[in-house]
Design brief:
The protein is mostly helical and 190 residues long. The chain folds into two domains: 53 residues, Orthogonal Bundle (Arc Repressor Mutant, subunit A), CATH 1.10.10.60; 130 residues, Tetracycline Repressor, domain 2 (Orthogonal Bundle), CATH 1.10.357.10. The chain has ten helices and no strands. Helix 7 packs across helix 9 and helix 8 crosses helix 9. It is elongated. The chain starts with a helix and ends in a 7-residue tail after the last helix.
C-alpha cells in the first residue's frame, strides 16, 4: 500500500499504471501481481487502507475537547497534517483525478462515498459532543458537518484546479468568521 500510495501521489490517477506501482514496490513485481490483477484493485485496496488509518480517527480518539477537535479537523482538511510524510497537495490532486472517474465506476464511487461518510460522521459526532457538553449551540450535527466538509473540499478543488493558492486560507477565515461563531455558545462575559 505504501508503494501504491507513493506512485499515486507521484503520477496521479490518470497516468498511474501497475508498472509505476511495481517500481515503487521494494519486493518482487510478481508478488504485487500475485495479489492484484489491475490498477483498480490496487486503488480500491489503497482507499481501504487509507480509510482504516485516516488521521481524523486518531484525532477523534486523542482530543477530548470537541471545540479543539473541530478546529483540528478543519485545519487538517484545509492544510494537511503538520507531520505529513507526503505532499498533501499531490495526494489530493491524484484523488481529484480519481473522483472524476467515479461517476462511471461504481467501485470507486462506493469507496469515495465511504471516505466522505467517515469524515462527516466524525465531524457530526464532534459537533454532537459539543452540543451535549454545552460548548456548541443546538444545531443539526449532520448538516453542519456536511457543510464544513463541502466548504473544505471546495477550497481544495479551487487550489488544485484553478491555482487559487489562497483558497484554503480564505475558507479558513470564512469558517472562523461566519460558521464557528454561530456554532459556539457564548462564553461567560460575552
Amino acid at each position: 500500500m505504501q508503494a501504491t500510495y507513493r506512485a499515486f501521489c507521484e503520477h496521479g490517477y490518470a497516468d498511474l499504471t501497475t508498472r509505476e506501482i511495481a517500481e515503487e514496490f521494494e519486493k518482487s513485481r510478481s508478488l504485487l501481481h500475485y495479489h492484484y490483477d489491475t490498477k483498480q484493485e490496487l486503488i480500491v485496496a489503497l482507499l481501504d487502507y487509507l480509510l482504516d488509518s485516516h488521521p481524523a480517527k486518531a484525532a477523534a480518539d486523542e482530543i477530548e475537547n470537541p471545540d479543539e477537535r473541530l478546529e483540528l479537523f478543519i485545519d487538517r482538511g484545509l492544510f494537511g497534517p503538520k507531520e505529513a510524510a507526503f505532499d498533501f497537495w499531490d495526494f489530493h490532486t491524484a484523488l481529484l483525478e480519481l473522483r472524476l472517474h467515479a461517476h462511471r465506476n461504481d467501485v470507486y464511487r462506493e469507496q469515495l462515498d465511504r471516505t466522505i461518510g467517515l469524515i462527516t460522521d466524525l465531524l457530526a459526532e464532534t459537533i454532537r459532543e459539543g452540543i451535549e457538553t454545552g460548548r456548541f449551540r443546538d444545531v443539526d450535527p449532520e448538516a453542519t458537518a456536511l457543510f464544513l466538509y463541502d466548504a473544505i473540499d471546495a477550497a481544495r478543488i479551487r487550489k488544485i484546479t484553478l491555482g487559487h493558492d489562497d483558497a484554503p486560507r480564505r475558507t479558513r477565515w470564512a469558517i472562523e468568521t461566519f460558521v464557528l461563531p454561530t456554532l459556539r455558545t457564548p462564553s461567560e462575559g460575552d
